[in-house]
Every structure is written in structure tokens, then in C-alpha cells.
Design a protein that fits this description.
By secondary structure, the protein is an alpha+beta fold. It has a single domain, classed as Nuclear Transport Factor 2, Chain: A. The protein is 26% helix and 30% strand. It has three helices and five strands. The strands form two sheets. Strands 3-4-5 form a three-stranded antiparallel sheet, with helices on one face. It has a two-stranded antiparallel sheet with strand order 1-2. The longest helix has 13 residues. It is globular. InterPro entries: Sheath_initiator.
Length: 117
Amino acid sequence: MRVRRLDKKHDWTFGNGFNSYANQSESIAQCVTTRLWSFTNDWFLDLDHGLPWLDKMGKAINLSELELKIKRQVLETQGVKQLTHYESNFNADERTLTIIVDYLDIYGTSHSAVYRS
């Protein structure tokens, strides 16, 4: 798998030839992170792609239901072999959600992806 690298602002990188692309484990890690930050109904080619972040805003959160969707999103990412750890922390007072997902890719490399809202 090969994907265009993202910079610190999550924009595609250009102008560096093949160095503008991520390969193997790096590309899988980037895809997992991108999928965690994806919103449903945001990509016109696949309205089911992404997680229901906007649907959950301002409503009571069912963390176990959301956990299943997040785990499925990570496991369905091309190149992810298995989840090794999942942790979430919802702080109602600060209205923040932190999710940490550890996983193993098809190359045998362990990764950690973090989502913070």
C-alpha cells in the first residue's frame, strides 16, 4: 500500500517525488488515523464512510456503541491485522473524548492511534 503523506496540518505533501508518499506500515498508520478522524456523510462517494462524530454532538453518548464502531473502523482499515488495546476517556465537564487504539499491522509492526476531541 502506498499513500500520499500528510503534513502536520493534515494536508497532502507535494514536491518531494517519492518522498511525498508513505509505504507499508507508515501508510497503514496514516490510514488508521485518517479513518478515526473521518465523519459520516462527509465523503460524497461513500456517505457511510467515517464515524458518527457529528451525530453524537450535544447528545448523551453511548460509549459501548461508539467503541464498537471505532473498533470496526480500525479493523476494516486495509493492512490492520488485529487490535491489541482500546482505551477511551470521556470527560463530561470539559466535553472532551480521548481514544487510544493500539493495533498490529500485516507487517508485524505495532502502532498506536489517538483521537482527541
